[in-house]
Amino acid sequence: MAKIIGGLTTSHIPAVGNAMAGKLEQDPYWKRFFDGYEPVKQWLDEVKPDLAIIVYNDHGLNFFLDKVPTFALGCADRYQNADEGWGIPASADVPGDAQFSWHLAESLIRQEFDMTTCQEMLVDHGFMVPMNLFWRQYEQWPVKAIPLAVNTVQHPLTSAARCYKLGKALRKAVESYPEDMKVVVIGTGGLSHQLQGERAGIIDVDFDLKCIDKIINEPEWMTGLSNDYIMEKAGTEGIEVIMWMVMRGALADKVDVLHKHYHAPISNTGAGVLLLTDAAAQ
Amino acid sequence: MVWNRHDYDEIPGTYVFDGKRANSGYALNRMAFSFNSEQNRKEFAADMDAYCRKYGLTDEQREAVLNGEFLKLLHLGCNVYYLAKIAVFHGLNVQDAGAAFQGITADEFRQKLLDQSAGFQSRLETEGGFWHG
């Protein structure tokens, strides 16, 4: 039986992709940010997950605005990264697992989450920056991955509450797969940032830390937040935090915190990292 | 024929990218999407005006693209991620555009980010349980 062995979160800032490509990890601006990933990388080295489900949003690589699925699931054996138009170097293709993907699609749709299924899916920095943050030290990707894209670009968007429920459905879907597999779910994006308008440049450390605490200890609190409220506090792009709720929903009600990291600013953003597992004592 | 009003319309200095903006900015964003291809970027760079006309931008949108008027592009329905694909032709990134939206320099914009994050490490100590290296 497949099993979720942990939940991770990370920002997916393009500038981080450029910093990794330029090997700037020891640069004073970047050092504290990147060092905060080392304990997670060590844990991943020890537990060796077979597959990562990466919850992210596409920023105009695979999906144009002609068709915008609220939830889309990669159902391929291979995912290609590609040119987004502004120069981030492309990473090696990432292996998928089509059989597992189609199982997830069947289970999720049965549970009333009507996923768009994608047999071809270009994955952008939203997916690749997390892959590189956790696994770039390997010559070849040591895990398979499945992209789960959530629309956070073109409103109306889904909600934190709905993402949390999707996470719960995802757990059921994973646990009903007959093959023994160790799975991690990665919620990406956020935390506070606004890229657009005269209000660009918002970082709200207090709100970010409150979200981190509530996501760990009281995720129901997050499900009560409207998108309007999150955008007002955390900025229009800070809404990406709802994708952390998919990760949280996929874990047990009580979790153990194996790692918690925050740094600001990174580029325009308050950047958070979590490593959570189901609590040993429920 | 009326666009719905939303609470988020009241957030100052903010242009939430919804149906109304997606509709008015469609051709503009479609052109920006084409810049994912290097060949299209070359074609645009060779004759920006002609490329904008090919994609059916309004005169106002075309002028804003050619002049690098980023705030105006938001007003005219450009999505910020697509704006990033246009900004590179002016030698700029999203952070530079963030400064341009409010008429400040990129250094001033970065200082604004630092100011808002100031003291975050002591906040983490108060909160407890955070990694500190």
Automatic annotation (TrEMBL), chain A:
Coiled-coil features, chain-numbered ranges: none
Record organism: Marinobacterium lacunae
Residue ranges occupied by any Extradiol ring-cleavage dioxygenase class III enzyme subunit B domain in the UniProt entry: 8-272
InterPro entries to which the protein is assigned, alphabetical: Xdiol_dOase_suB
Keyword set includes Zinc: no
Enzyme Commission number, as recorded: 1.13.11.8
Keyword annotations: Dioxygenase, Oxidoreductase
Keyword Oxidoreductase annotated: yes
The protein's name: Protocatechuate 4,5-dioxygenase beta chain
UniProt cross-references to SUPFAM superfamilies, sorted A to Z: LigB-like
Pfam families linked to this entry: LigB
Domain of life: Bacteria
Top-level enzyme category: oxidoreductase
GO molecular function: ferrous iron binding; protocatechuate 4,5-dioxygenase activity
TrEMBL record, chain B:
Keyword Oxidoreductase assigned: yes
The protein's Enzyme Commission number: 1.13.11.8
Residue ranges of every copy of the Extradiol ring-cleavage dioxygenase LigAB LigA subunit domain listed in the record: 28-113
SUPFAM superfamilies xrefs: LigA subunit of an aromatic-ring-opening dioxygenase LigAB (SSF48076)
Name of one Pfam family that matches: LigA
Keyword Nucleus (UniProt): no
Any one GO molecular-function label of the UniProt entry: protocatechuate 4,5-dioxygenase activity
UniProt KW keywords: Dioxygenase, Oxidoreductase
Entry-linked InterPro entries: LigA_sf, Xdiol_dOase_LigA
Protein's UniProt name: Protocatechuate 4,5-dioxygenase alpha chain
Organism: Marinobacterium lacunae
